[in-house]
Amino acid sequence: MRIGTIGVVPLIGALVFMLALGCSSDGSDAPGTPSSAPQSSATPTPQVDDSSGEMVVTLHISTPAGDRQTGTAVLTSIGDTTNIEINVAPPALEAQPMHIHFGNCSEIGSIFEGLENVILGHSSTTLEVPMDRITVSGMLINIHASFDDFPTSTGCVEMPVLTS
Fold first, then answer.
1. End-to-end Cα spacing for the chain
2. Three-state DSSP class for 105?
3. pLDDT tens digits, 99-110
């Protein structure tokens, strides 16, 4: 049987319609299937994963002003060291100093440990400090606006208290 050009157009239209029906969601995603709603990689609740033998903690970076930088801090415990990966947006055009401080995001205290500067929204630091020394009450990661505007915080996250 031969289908002419006129017969192909409705056939393609019907196939597209059936595919669209098969891909649509009724808003109730089944367990184990990806949600059709946009998902944020950051979460306000710390996410802890120790399934690989290393503890990995993902934190949500925000700012009290709400109009600065948001993103994630991923802390990975590797023996007696802690790797800290920072990703924030929007990225600043100049280097941003960053530290672990004592205190909380409302009252930032003295510096406990310096971290690598945030460059274009990213930083990676390996500290010779075990994670259990920085995941205690009264510790935070603070991102400063710049070296010239050091007092201004553009992103902050308080460390969770982790128990073994």
1. 71
2. coil
3. 999 999 999 999
- Superfamily the domain 47-158 falls into: Superoxide dismutase, copper/zinc binding domain (2.60.40.200)
Q: From 157, 156, 140, select the one nearest 68 (Cα to Cα).
A: 156
In tens, the pLDDT along 33-90 reads 333 333 333 345 677 777 777 889 999 999 766 668 999 999 999 989 999 999 999 9
CB 55 within 8 A of CB 160: no
pLDDT tens string 6-45: 454 444 444 333 333 343 334 333 333 333 333 333 345 6
Distance CA 55, CA 115 (A): 20
Sheet strand arrangement including 139-144 = 108-118, 96-103, 139-144, 153-158
